[in-house]
Write a structure and sequence with these properties.
The chain is α/β, with parallel strands linked by helices. It is about 40% helix and about 20% strand. The longest helix is centred in the middle third of the chain and has 18 residues, at about 140-155. The two termini are about 40 Å apart. About 45% of the residues are buried.
């Protein structure tokens, strides 16, 4: 059927009709809010490149989580900033670390909120790389042992989900077997399965987690931006090793990967709307170039349209307010 019998604009003529026939829809249930937790008390310091996001002590983190919970946001993703850094990231798997303390406090205060613990070592190493270094190269298997200890530390504190972002071969199998061996088989694993070596992480590392590498980069373990088939292999391996949810990171430049992962595997897919994407929109909005709310909603809707089930975004609270 063609014009004039077919008039596509009939289904666009009012806001009500457009909502009725919209295929991809954004819900507060889709949102995961990343939070940066620090030692101390009474700390709430805004991260300059991530407006509306803060370094939070545990007590102030609880205030933030209560507000998120009231808005209906179901989950938070916790990142910790340590007091001490060394070459083997010892604070990451210490029971006195800030992330386990935050998990315990949050599960006591809001037991129904899903607590996801980012599990990597870069914020805890003195060199800023994601694991144990030998000759400037991250040793995969030595790093896996420390990742297993870190995941167990978070799970014992009460984390509902472990989210390894370290991109080591075998990381999911190591975490799954470690948790299962400790009787923690109910703890879920969300894998950063297709994590690309991207310049869009810079605000996170420079100001969010304060973990810029002392030398080199992370291209020996994060994926090359030119590869898509490799992402499918990574996802397949992580699912085989026991991942419950797989993630694509970053989001905006990798919508094709989100679509392929969802189409080929039909499993829950998360996407990370990373710090650089967030910072760019805010910078453009400050210049009066873009309408921040409109473009943010459009971007998150694009993630949903591509196939994402969950969206980790620094905009979670603002979007939840609008959806409410």
């Amino acid at each position: 059927m063609s014009f004039p019998a077919c008039r596509m604009r009939r289904l666009r003529q009012s806001g009500t009709i457009r909502r009725m026939v919209r295929q991809a829809k954004l819900s507060v249930d889709d949102l995961i809010a990343p939070l940066f937790v620090v030692h101390g008390s009474g700390v709430k310091e805004e991260i300059a490149s991530l407006p509306g996001n803060y370094h939070l002590s545990v007590d102030r983190m609880l205030e933030e989580c209560r507000e998120l919970h009231e808005l209906g946001v179901p989950a938070v993703l916790l990142f910790g900033l340590p007091q001490h850094k060394d070459e083997v990231a010892s604070e990451a798997y210490s029971e006195r670390a800030v992330v386990p303390a935050a998990i315990r406090a949050l599960k006591e205060e809001l037991p129904e909120m899903v607590v996801i613990a980012d599990t990597c070592l870069c914020a805890y190493t003195s060199h800023g790389h994601c694991g144990v270094l030998h000759g400037g190269y991250v040793d995969n298997d030595e790093t896996l042992a420390l990742i297993g200890k870190t995941a167990l530390n978070y799970a014992r504190a009460g984390a509902d989900m472990i989210a390894p972002s370290v991109m080591m071969d075998g990381m999911i199998g190591t975490i799954r077997s470690t948790l299962d061996g400790a009787g923690l088989e109910r703890v879920m694993v969300m894998s950063y399965a297709a994590k690309y070596a991207s310049g869009l992480y810079d605000p996170f590392f420079k100001e969010g987690s304060e973990s810029v590498v002392a030398f080199g980069d992370k291209r020996s373990h994060q994926m090359d931006p030119g590869n898509s088939d490799e992402a499918m292999r990574e996802v397949a391996l992580d699912l085989e090793e026991g991942a419950d949810i797989v993630m694509v990171k970053p989001g905006l430049p990798y919508l094709d990967i989100v679509y392929r992962v969802k189409s080929e595997f039909r499993v829950p897919v998360a996407v990370y709307n990373v710090s650089g994407e967030y910072a760019m929109l805010h910078a453009a909005a400050r210049q009066g170039i873009l309408n921040l709310q409109r473009i943010t909603d459009e971007l998150l809707l694009a993630f949903k349209r591509a196939g994402a089930d969950l969206i980790i975004t620094y905009s979670a609270k603002d979007v939840a307010r609008r959806l409410a």
